[in-house]
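REQUEST FORM: STRUCTURE PREDICTION
Request ID: SP-0412
Submitted by: Lab K.M.
Chain count: 1
Length (residues): 693
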Amino acid sequence: MSQFHQVFFEESLEGLDIMEKHLLELDTGNIDLEEINTIFRAAHSIKGGAGTFGFMQVSSFTHVLETLLDEVRAEKRGLSQEDVNLLLQSVDCLRGMMDALQAESEPDLSVANDLQKKFETALAGGAPAGAGATAGAAGGAGPSAAGWRIGFRPEPHILRTGNEPLRLIRELAALGRIEVRADLGGLPEIENLVPEDCYLNWEIELTGAVEEAAIREVFEWVEDDCELVLEPLGAEPEAAPAAGEATAAQPATPPETQAPATEAVPAATSGAPAKPAGEKKAASKEAASIRVGIDKIDSLINMVGELVITQSMLGQLGKDFRMDRLINLQEGLAQLEHHTRELQERVMSIRMVPISFAFSRFPRLVRDLSHALGKQIQLIMEGESTELDKTVMEKIGDPLVHLVRNSLDHGIEMPDVRKAKGKPEMGTITLSACHQGGNILIEIIDDGGGIKADKVREKAIQKGLIKESDRLTKEQINDLIFRPGFSTAEKLSDISGRGVGMDVVRKNIQALNGSVSVSSDVGVGSTFTIALPLTLAILDGQLIECGGETYIFPLISIVESIQIDTQLVSRVAAGCELFRLREEYVPVIRLYEVFNVEPRSRSLEDSLMVVVESGTEKVGVVVDDLLAQQQVVIKSLEDNYEPVQGVSGATILGDGTVALILDIKGLIDMAGVRQFASQRNMFGGADKDEEAA
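STATUS: Completed
RESULT:
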C-alpha cells in the first residue's frame, strides 16, 4: 500500500491546516459546534488513514486528541484557552510525525507522549474520566479495570467492503496489550473456499482500563457487517472456544493475517517500517502534486481538440498546396498561433494556486509570537484569492515569514508605548496581494514605530557600510537594512535581530526574478513591497542586440530606454562612467565589454542605453539596438550546462537560435559597479576619487 502513502501525507497535512485554521478562529466563550465538528472530522480522517496504512504512532496519538474533541461536540465539557493551546501543540506534533514518516524515519515520540499525558489529565478533569468520549451517550459501560474479552465475528462479505480485520486489530493494540486467537471452525474444504470471503472469527483479550465506547469506536465502520460481543475480563465467557480454534501454542493463520497470541501487537511505537536514524532522507518541503479544478482540465481538453482540428486543416493544405490557397495557409497559421498561445495560458493556469496557501501559516505565527512578546497584534489578510505559480508560492514562504517576524519584533510597539503615543494598544499587520500588469505585488504593512533613519544611519557608519560624510536620501537609508550583517537590534533574540536575514530575504526574492523595497514613516509604520513574476517558467522580455548577439532583459527590471546624450556622461576614478539621469547619477555598463563581443559602434552617440534596476541599484546598459518584446520560455543553464555569471537562463527564439536571459544583479557584479550614495547624489560630500568596488 506504499503507493498510496504520498496521497495520505498530502491529505493529512491539509487536514492539519484545516484543524489549525479553525482552532485559531474558535471563541472559547461562545463555542461554534460546527467548527468543532470540522476539527473533529479532520482529526478522525487522519486517525483512520494512519490506522489503514499502519502508522500506529499517529493513530494512537490522534485518538486521545479526538476523544477530547468528541466530548466538546457532545457538549459534555467546555473548551478553555489552555485546551486550544494544547490542541494547537498537537497539530504541530502531528506535522512533525508526518514529516518523519514521509522521510521514512522513525518519529520522535517524546513530545507526543508528553502531550498525551496532558490530554489524559485534561480528560480526567472533565465530566467523563478516561479515554472514552461517547460511553454515556451510547449507554455503554465505563472502563473495566482488568480489560475486555472481545468476540469479533465478521460476515463473510466483509473483505468485499474494503475492510481489513488486521487493521481493526491494530487499532485495538493502540488501546492496550492484546492477545488474539483465531477461530478456524468456519473454514470450508479447500475445493469450496471462495478467496474473497472471510471464514475466520476472532477472540481478543484486551488488557487495560479502557472504556467500552473506545472499543466500539474501533469497529464503528464495520458494525453492520459483523457480530461484536464485549465482556469485561473476569466475567464468564459467552461460549467456549470452538474445536478448530488456534491458540498461542498453535497459530493457524499466517502472520500477515493474525497477530501473534504470545505478545501484544505494538501500540504507540509500532507502525510502518522505518529506516535507521543514519539512513534518513530529507522530506521534500514542496508538494509532489497539485489539485486542479475539473473546469481547467475540461478547458485544456477542449483546447487540444481545437489544435488537432487546426493541425488536420494545415495537413490537408500541405498535401495539395497551390498558390491560390496561400491565404488559407496564412489563416491556418494565424489560427495555430492563436490556439498555441491560448493552450500555453491554460497549461500555465494549472500551476496557478491562490496565495492563501502561503498566507495560511501567518495567523498562527502572529498569535504565538505576539503572546511570546507580550504584544497585542491582529493580522489582516487581503487578496488571498490572488493566484501565482505554485513554485513561486513555495519559494516566497520563507522571505515572507522573516518580514512578518521583523514587523512583529521591530515594528509593532509594546501596548503601553502605543497607548502613550495615542495609538490603539492593539497593533495591526496587514498582508495583501494583488496583480499589477504581469506581476504580483505582496505588501507587508504594519502600523508600528517605523524605521528611525538616524539610528539606521548611525549603525551603518559603525559597521563601515557608509561614511559619515555621505549624504543619503531617506529611501537610501531605509535600504541599508538589506545590507549583509545589518541589524539595529539592541539584543539578540530567537525572533529576529541575529544580524542576518534581511539581506537573505532580498537575495531569495531576487532569485525569483523579483524585487523588494521598503517605505517607512517614523511613528506611523512601515510597508515592505515585494514584486514577483507570476511564473518562473515564462518571462516577459525585451530583446536587445549587441555585437551581433541577441540578449534578453526581463521587462520587470527595465526602468526606461533612452538615446545617450554624451554631455550627460561623466568619467570618474578608474574609468567608471556615470550618466546623469535627471536628479541622479547612474553607472554605465558597456555590454560588449562584459561579454567580450565587437559592437556595431563603440561611440555612445550611435548606441542606446537601457536603464535597468536590481533592488535599489540602477545601471545604464549600453547596447547596439532594441528589438521586439515577447514572452520567452526559460531554459535553465544550470541544469543543461553550468551556472554562468550574469546569465539567469536561456531561451530558443522563433528562428531556432539561442538567446541568453541576463541576470541584472550578476551583470552589475561582473562589471564591478556599485552604487555609492555620493556618486548618485551629484557627488555631494563624497570622495570622488574612491573607486567603485
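NOTES: Residues 294-319 form the longest helix (26 residues).
Reviewed by: T.R.
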